[in-house]
Model the fold of this input.
Amino acid sequence: MLPFLREHWGNPSSAHDRGRRARAAIDDARDRLAAVLGCAPRELTFTSGGTEADNLAVRGALQRWGGERGRHVVVSAVEHEAVLGTAAALAARGEAEVTVVGCDAAGRVDPERVAAAVRDDTTLVSMMLANNEVGAVQDVADAARLVRLANPRTLVHTDAVQALGRLAVDPRALGVDLLSLSAHKCYGPKGCGVLYARWGTHLTAQMDGGGQERERRSGTENVAAIAGFAVAAELVEGEREDEATRLGALRDCLEAAVLERAAHVRVAARAAQRLPNMSALLVDDASAEALVAALDGAGVEVSGGSACASGAARPSHVLAAMGEDPGRTALLRLSMGRGTLATDVDDAIDHLVEAIDTATASAGKPPKRRALTAAGG
Done:
């Protein structure tokens, strides 16, 4: 990124040398990211992040095709707020009719239920690839296949923001028309994302102006961030399988230890296929805010649900969809990455058990009895 912050800082829409260098950097990044995803470079539109990519997919598809195909949209109950909030806003203005498909207790959305919700006037189905709060992985490929059988004209979008670098992300293998990604989820810079739109999938632009990004997203491109995104995607894809195995083992170790040593704690979505780098712990009759604060004081950084909204005191819609009571059950999301070591997990386990025991004891619940160690007599 540094050359485009220091020397080659020209506007990529300019014809002079610095502008041409900036344009070449964007073209190169688009090619490299397309190679990671197995798609054509012209199918990628750079955005300011996953939220904008989701908005462009949902709003852009409905505004472009709603008048011709219908204004019905199908979403799952565990989607990111960038999808659910957008769909709700469109419905509130009378621009869409939205059907929300629920999930089971493990956070899994049944592809057959998604397809069953599709109607003759369904323009778009949006089903995320991996959940950002509990890590449950959805069978998007099967859902897309069944949606096509139900209505061949219906577009299928997946929010794959959490998946890049952790799961294979191949739009064609998934069978989707639209796919959203964000750079900072794969160690790239914040404030940069991309929307894959299968060639021939036309969308209404949500930002008007200079006509950048083939008139799909106006505005001067963030050249340095785009360059960083492409390289980050290449790096995480290159180590994805090894890192998934390593992080999955660390996650399993953490969960086994916490379940053994702490009472009144459960693992969310444990019966589902999950992201290897994430553990979501459910603590009954406890406050997520208090647990997050206590752990932060001990040097353990966790989130009380979605990192995008964990600063907001509102219940998790994902927990509610899974049949939990967000008012009584605290959700702790623990994420691990390429810098996480086994010693970090060991330290986190000790602090987690202490914080959970303290929280549940204050609620009048006894801690789990522990066997004495040799050192303790």
Remarks:
- Strands lie at 44-47, 72-76, 97-101, 122-126, 155-159, 178-182, 193-197, 265-267, 278-284, 329-335.
- The domain at 240-362 is CATH 3.90.1150.10 (Aspartate Aminotransferase, domain 1).
- The chain is about 40% helix and 15% strand.
- The CA atoms of residues 188 and 256 lie 31 Å apart.
